[in-house]
Design a protein that fits this description.
Chain lengths: 180, 180
C-alpha cells in the first residue's frame, strides 16, 4: 500500500501529464485521480494512474497515465454475473506504450517486465501504440502494458469496469483501493 | 444530401478543430470523418461532424465536432433487439455546448433552434457543458445540442451506436450516409 505522500506525488505528476496533453479536467476530477500500485509498493516499476470519467452498468471511459517505463501488470477480465468479460479499447493519446497480448511471441520486444517479476509476464505478442493508434482487446484476454521512456497517456473505452474481478498472473498482486 | 465539395470543406474544418484541441488522429481516421447533414442540406445550422474511434456490439467511442451555432437535432435512441436504447455520456473537450434533455424547462435558454424548424425542438431542460464537463444520458431520452459561438468538440462514450434506429422529432430528417 502506498503512503499518502507517495499518492500526492504521483497525483501531481499525473496532472502534469494531462496538462501537457491538453486534457482538461474539473477540480473534482483532479482530486479523484487513482494511483494503483497493485499492492506491491513498487510504484515506479509496477503501477498505473487512472482518471475514470464514467463507469455505468454498461459503459466505462478512463484516461490512464503511465510514468516512464511504468508497467500495468499482466491480467485479464473474466466473465462476471453472466456477462462476457470486460472488453477494452486502448487509444494512445501521448507518448508511447508497448502492449502485450495473447498470440504469437514477438521477437526482441521493446518492453521489459519489472525486475524480479519476469516469471509473471507470459504473453508476448507486441502491439506498439503511438498517439492516434488504438487496439481493441476481446474479453478475457491476458494482457499487460508498459510506457516508453517519456511515459504515456492512454484512453480506455470499455464495458463496465469491475476491478475486483480482475485476475492477475502474479499471485502477490492485489488490486487494492488507494489510501487517500 | 451534401455535395462532395461541401463534404471536403466540412472535413477540413473539422480537422482544424481537432488540431486546435491537440487531438491526434491517424491518416486513415482523417479520411473517415463523417459529415452528417441529417438529410436537410442546411449543414451550417443542422449538422454534426463525427469521428468514430470504435463501435463494437458493446461499446462505442466518438469525437463530435460542432461548428459555431451548429445543432444536432432532437432525437432519441429507442430499445433495439431486446436491448435498452443507447446510453451516452457527452464530455466537452473544447468550446461550449448547450445540451437539452427531457425535464423542467430552463428559462431563457442559451440555445436557439435552427430557423424554420423551431416546432421540432420540444425538450428544454438545459445543461451547459464547458471543457471538462460531462453529462450521462439514460437510454431513450429525447435530446438535442448546439455549439456556442466558437464551436465545440465533445467526446461521446456509449453503448453500441445504431444510427439507423434513431428517432427524430423532425419528420423531414433522415439519418443518411454521407456522399464520399
Amino acid at each position: 500500500m502506498i503512503t499518502k505522500q507517495q499518492y500526492e506525488q504521483a497525483k501531481q505528476k499525473t496532472l502534469e501529464y494531462f496538462e501537457k496533453a491538453g486534457i482538461i479536467l474539473t477540480e473534482a476530477e483532479k482530486q479523484n485521480i487513482e494511483v494503483a500500485d497493485f499492492g506491491l509498493n513498487e510504484l515506479e516499476s509496477t503501477g498505473l494512474e487512472i482518471l475514470t470519467y464514467v463507469n455505468t452498468d454498461r459503459v466505462c471511459a478512463k484516461e490512464l497515465v503511465l510514468f516512464p517505463g511504468q508497467t500495468c501488470p499482466e491480467h485479464r477480465h473474466p466473465p462476471v454475473v453472466g456477462e462476457p468479460g470486460k472488453e477494452e479499447t486502448f487509444r494512445c493519446r501521448w507518448g508511447e506504450v508497448y502492449l502485450y497480448v495473447t498470440g504469437e511471441k514477438t521477437p526482441n520486444p521493446k518492453g521489459k517486465p519489472p525486475k524480479g517479476r519476469e516469471q509473471w509476464y507470459t504473453v508476448w505478442h507486441e502491439v506498439i501504440l503511438k498517439p492516434g493508434d488504438q487496439y481493441t482487446l476481446p474479453p478475457n484476454t491476458w494482457h499487460w502494458f508498459q510506457a516508453g521512456k517519456d511515459g504515456a497517456i492512454v484512453s480506455e473505452f470499455s464495458t463496465r469496469s469491475r476491478d475486483e474481478s480482475d485476475e492477475f498472473t502474479d499471485p502477490e498482486i492485489a488490486r487494492m483501493p488507494v489510501v487517500q
